[in-house]
Amino acid sequence: MLAQAGMRYYLATMFSFTRFFRLFNPAVAVRDFREVWVQENPHRLRILLLSGAATFAIFGTMFSESHMIQPRPPEVTYITSYQGERSDAEIIAENIANQRAKEERFADADARREAAREAYEAVGSATGVDTQQARAEGEAERRQYERDLAEARERAVSRWGTVDPDTGKIVGPNPNGTEQAGVDPAE
Question: Are 89 and 167 spatial neighbours (Cβ–Cβ below 8 Å)?
């Protein structure tokens, strides 16, 4: 017990701020410098100039160095030029294939996001966080996002029309706003 009390006293004394400022007091340092400065020394000015020159040389060298790295030339990706004589059916078929590839990428991204949500839920469950409430809030936000997206799609289709991905036929709006069924783009 006495040894532990002695150790605590030793550590408290060793790490106290008062001891630190007693050992490394700036006022004492300034006083010591002044005492050394006022002493008569024939080399004082030479030492002062030499130390100033050395300091100036070191910092001057650091500030004057510059390393300019040449930027890499940009990687230019040119847009693929298409044949001008492509038919509307070929264009639509390519657009449908691109749309399917895009939907596959989105499905993969959704699967990754779901795996991340499950991992966060596992961590939350392990740490005692209410994961059911957070999951319900996230699902509500996703449902709202899907509703907003569906409304935006409906507005775009009603205004500009669309292409049926299965048949490749243009389904567009009539001037009066109703959909026009099955216009074949090859005709």
Answer: no
48 to each of 37, 51, 104, 110, 146, how far by Cα in Å?
11, 5, 74, 70, 75
Tokens of 91: 């264009």
Contact between residue 146 and residue 140 where contact means Cβ atoms under 8 Å apart: no
* Predicted local distance difference test score (pLDDT) of residue 175: 47
- Residue 37 CB partners (closer than 8 Å, separation 6+): 44
Residue 163 burial (CB count, 10 A)? 20
> Tokens 């779901």 — which residue?
114
Q: How confident is the model at residue 138 (pLDDT cuts 50, 70, 90)?
A: confident
CA atoms within 13 A on the CB side of 11: 5
Domain residue ranges in the chain: 88-168
The 10 Å Cβ neighbour count of residue 88 is 14
Residues 6+ apart with CB under 8 A from 65: none
Q: In this predicted model, what pLDDT tens digit does every residue of 13-39 receive, in sequence order?
A: 656 666 666 677 788 888 888 888 788
pLDDT in the model for residue 186 = 46
Dihedral angle computed from the Cα positions of residues 161, 166, 168 and 171, in that order, rounded to the nearest 10 degrees: -20
Residues 145/160, Cβ–Cβ less than 8 Å: no
Contact 33, 48 (CB under 8 A): no
